Amino acid sequence: MATAFTQPHIDLDKKFEEITKLKQNVERRKLQIDTVKLKSLWDFLKYLELTKLQLEKRKMEIVDHMKDLKKIGNDGEAKQEMEKLKVEGRIVREDLKTLLKAFWEVEEKVVLKGLSLPNELHKDTPDGQDKVVYEFKERPTTTQKESHLDIGQILGLIDFRDSSLFYLKNEAAHFELACLSYFSEGFKADDFIPFCNPDFSRSLVVEGCRRDHTDPNSAFTVSFPNEKIQANYRLHLVGGASMYPFCAFHTKHTISFSSLPLKYYTCGRQYSPTGPEQEDECSGLFGTWQRTGVEVFVLTADDYTEMMNVFRRSLDIVIGLYEQLGYHFRVTYVSASSLQCWECLRASVQMYSCHEQKYIEVGKISISDKYICQRLLMSYQMSEKDEKTRFMKMVSGTVVDVPKLLACILEQRNESEGKFTLPECLRYHSLA
């Protein structure tokens, strides 16, 4: 895992050159960022930087001039000029010292605020409501009085204590294992590389992926009694089936262009706290702290067409896998205001909860473009002699969230079906 300090690449000059576009981006996402004030701060920093360069240049000119005067000798005129230069030199040094203090303070503010700026939005990202781009079968019209937890308890499938502790039993346990195998095989067949990730990532990586590692409602932090670890080097329990360990693997690494695209998949756990507001909105298996899933992670060259081809191909694979399950689902492009700051486009796979009477996201694929790669210095080179910094583009996502998928299927099934049975496409992958 990456532990060394990482200086992110942020092209603020480019962002502020297109201030109108940046302002619209922030407004569409409904973020509380004053882009005009931030640009003013950036302009002030550039002014301080220019002044600093001028003072440093004058300081060197004074030093060089004094050296030349020493060569001339100590005649009256040279001595008088030397005294003037000494006085000016002291003034320049004091001015430079004062300016540097202000420069560092402003630079820290600007960089921190610059790091909080969101990714550019993709042209296909809608405003307002999500845009439905694909739908399979008709939405169930029946209202399920019993929740998936009630059904799961009656059928002996779920032992749910709270959002932090639950057990899948009998056929539900087989369903979990079969789902992981089924979705993994689907991507393995398309030449995705299987990967085994650690469950932990450092704060630097978590922050680089735009997740607030200091917020206990955002990330689990591993702590020990009397530990003396800098905040940026703490360990966080995120789960191997998430993008964080993938990003940690490539942080500050440069790979060969001939190796791209890199297509990975992994199955395992995801860990994420659920805040009080989320618990009210997402009950039962829809809001658990621990989830089992399959994560895909792709890195491409800095080529928009290649990135979009990977995104569409991955989405086609996901759609094909969900169709074989035989239940209604839809795919939407998520609205700008619902995206994470690192996302520029997200395709959300949603199934209908007949009890909650709303759609639940059971899978997703997101485009990050170069946003995270620039922050974590994930680059590639065209050849061994290529010294130009080229950042990769990233496509990633949890293609199946097993607990949520199971919950929706339980609520869509008919009572006349009796006991819960695995969808036919999963039976081959079950250990039963």
Question: Can you tell me about this structure?
Answer:
- With 432 residues, this protein is an alpha+beta fold.
- It folds into 2 domains: 104 residues, Orthogonal Bundle (Helix Hairpins), CATH 1.10.287.40; 297 residues, BirA Bifunctional Protein, domain 2, CATH 3.30.930.
- Helix content is 42%, strand content 21%.
- It has 13 helices and 16 strands.
- The chain has an 8-stranded mixed β-sheet. Strands 5-7-6 form a 3-stranded antiparallel β-sheet. A 3-stranded mixed β-sheet has the order 8-14-15, with no helix packed on it.
- Strand 14 and strand 15 form a beta hairpin.
- Helix 3 runs antiparallel to helix 4, helix 5 packs across helix 12 and helix 6 packs antiparallel against helix 10.
- It is elongated, with a radius of gyration of 28 Å.
- The protein starts with 11 loop residues before the first helix and ends in a 5-residue tail after the last helix.
- The mean pLDDT is 90.
- InterPro entries: aa-tRNA-synt_IIb, aa-tRNA-synth_II/BPL/LPL, Ser-tRNA-ligase_type_1, SerRS_1_N_sf, tRNA-bd_arm.
- This is Aminoacyl-tRNA synthetase class II (G/ P/ S/T) domain-containing protein.
List keywords for this structure.
single chain, 432 residues, alpha+beta, Helix Hairpins, BirA Bifunctional Protein, domain 2, 2 domains, eight-stranded mixed beta sheet, three-stranded antiparallel beta sheet, 13 helices, 42% helix
